[in-house]
Design goal:
By secondary structure, the protein is of the alpha/beta class. The protein has 8 helices and 7 strands; from the N terminus they run ααβββαβαβαβαααβ. Strands 5-4-3-2-1-6-7 form a 7-stranded parallel β-sheet, with helices on one face. The longest helix has 28 residues, at about 1-30.
Amino acid sequence: MLVSIANKIKVIPGYLYRNYVAPKIYSILDRKILLKNLELKNKYVGQRCFIIGAGPSIADTDLSRLNREYTFVVNEFEKNKQYNSLTPTFHIISESNYFTESGPEYWRNRFKEKSRDVSVSTTMIFNLAAIPFIEKHSLFKQHKIYYAGTQGIFSDNLPFNINLDHYVPNPKNSILMCLIAAVWMGFSEIYLLGCEHSFLAQPLGPNKSLSFGHSYGHEISESDNVSIEVLKKYITPREMGFNYEMNMASVLQLFKNYRLFYAKARKAHSDLQIFNATPNSFLDIFPMINFEDIKLATSG
């Protein structure tokens, strides 16, 4: 019993450093990069925006109807068949697999291709940790780029920051990073599309995809019998060892991140409204709404 207590006490200094001290230190060290984000602060006060995820429901949504709206997209959106019918305002990537040199080859190669495939009129927002990779491979030379620094976790027990001129907690996915950015920019009405968040509805096991449905073709989400060699192209050795309990813990933290972010954002911005317009979504942190009930901007 005493040994167990002692071991728990030992981890406290490291926890405090990673989640309270380190974000403050890194915010100072990367101050010059983060100050550029002030260009975006409250730029769209009182406006509304749409955050478009990668969920399969997007395949059945006419995204061209959002052409006159402010839009955020994430990760592989340019692979969507409707990409040419919608020029996103912002494209955000926070997941480190894309720019980790030792990471899975698919994501590293896709990151390089994005520099060519994503419209130069779309503003890019990346994890600050991507800078070495971007500079090494001379990527996104024609794009407007901003960087968000991430360190630590969202916590019930420690104060955390959601302003982009300082480090923010690791959001665990790009959708939450979009929400953080949208609130920073002053959007007061935010709609989520393609955010099923049905991760735990997928079985795990030998040769399973360890993935979930997308709005575009993907070889590891189209088959229940995926070879280990194919999986290695997409998944880190650590992720290969995930079991269902580990996956539950990861999703639990993600939903906790959403809850804590929403509470803090609403406290700072009393007029903020976030709605989930994704049909059959598991993400119930935000009020659900039918996309067809939203009156969209028209060319007239």
